Amino acid sequence: MGSSAVQQVKVAVIGSGFGGLGAAVRLRQEGEHDFVVLERGASVGGTWRDNSYPGCACDVPSHLYSFSFAPNPDWPRTFSGQPEIRKYLEGVVDRFGLRGHLRFHHTVTGARWDEGTARWEIETEQGRYSAQVLVAATGPLSDPSVPDVPGIADFPGEVFHSAQWNHDYDLAGKRVAVIGTGASAIQIVPAIQPKAGRLVLFQRTPPWVMNRMDRDITAAERFVYRHLPASQKALRGALWLVREYQVGAFVKRPGLLKVPEALALANLRKHVKDPALRVKLTPDYRFGCKRVLLSNTYYPALAQPNVDVVASGLKEIKGSTLVASDGTEHEVDAIVFSTGFHVTDLPVAEHITGMNGRTLAEEWEDGMAGLRGTTVRGFPNLLLIIGPNTGLGNSSMVLMIESQLNYLADYLRKLGSTGAAALDVTASAQLRWSDEVQRRMARTVWNTGGCRSWYLDAKGNNTTLWPGTTAHFRRETRTVDLHEYDLIRTPAAAPVNV
């Protein structure tokens, strides 16, 4: 396609992680073949392509962290590593014939709603597209967040984020600082501790850590799953049901979390015998307020003689010396930032411009909001996969994605049946939904547990998580209610409220 050509498509999908590939599969299942998947990278996988750090793995069981319509009987472990998950997603591409729809190295630099044509005009680094429907499936874990630490520019050693791991840099014998104690850090630390000469972990807040019930899946089990698919489906159902029952404690009765809290403290006492270190690693907030982490190797690694735990944030850098907020200084050769991602300030929002020339980022200045986590007022025919308040604290995001794919499918059906050029959420419907979500959020452990987490935005609002079960969300996104939308029947015509 030449740089001046504009390719016309029915649907343009941004991103080829679980959300983007799931959307592509669902479009084909609905008989829609006029679509493209715009991917900034050289291959599919999203966060499972970008995060290749040592020890990278999923903290959701394999058989639940996969599409219901694409079961994998050959998962090698109960909790799969990054290479296996990436291989699975490549397999989904081939299994459902998606290769012809993929456009690699197509970073989206802008997407603007054209009211005259009622279409999305999309600019990428490789050319332009025009689409009736735009599906943003970039996900919340796609753009690394690196703190602007004073002096970082003059640090003479190696610096990288966990999602941009430098595999060419040998950590053997080096003095390594790991900044952060989230889900990636507790996997990185045990993986690099044996080879590092010295490892310094900067911890602002200790996480709650539970045992990880991980093991090899036997050849016999895989044989059964291949030849008796119902057995794998039953296992998936059981894994799902256990997590559905846990939701009540997180969202309605945080007091029930005292039992797993006691188990986590027992886990800490078992692996950390040093009383001073144990104090540093004991959380002072309610279990579940921040994401509960799973590891059998994190605490043992921290107890090793070549590891220092600094119970403080990183304040500044002076040459090769890292100065903690508590005043202690540490000489290091390399810095690994395990500091998470831009979750409540999605960078893609800056590149999507809706009605009246407002970007999605501007629309969300006071916090992310949308209808059913999928559509946003003033952005007709834009659907978000993993949008506001669709995250989970204890289960598989694939379940939420599949619910949103149901909504996407019905959205396209409604467009066809009404003859509308576009749908735009009514202000009242979006406000009603958002108010109800925040009302239910108020009593959850994420809001009342006494911590500051990445679930909360700059104003302290939880615009990230879903305060309910995945079954509830699926019911809420099964069909599109046209009473919640204005219909734009013809380009440039006034919306008609139904």
From TrEMBL:
Similarity annotation: Belongs to the FAD-binding monooxygenase family.
Necessary cofactors: FAD
PANTHER family: FAD_NAD(P)-BINDING DOMAIN-CONTAINING PROTEIN-RELATED (PTHR42877:SF4), L-ORNITHINE N(5)-MONOOXYGENASE-RELATED (PTHR42877)
Example of a GO MF term: NADP binding
Keyword flag rRNA processing: no
InterPro entries in the cross-refs: FAD-bind_Monooxygenase_sf, FAD/NAD-bd_sf, Flavin_mOase-like
Keywords: FAD, Flavoprotein, Monooxygenase, NADP, Oxidoreductase
Name the UniProt record assigns to this protein: Cyclohexanone monooxygenase
UniProt keyword Nucleus present: no
Organism: Streptacidiphilus pinicola
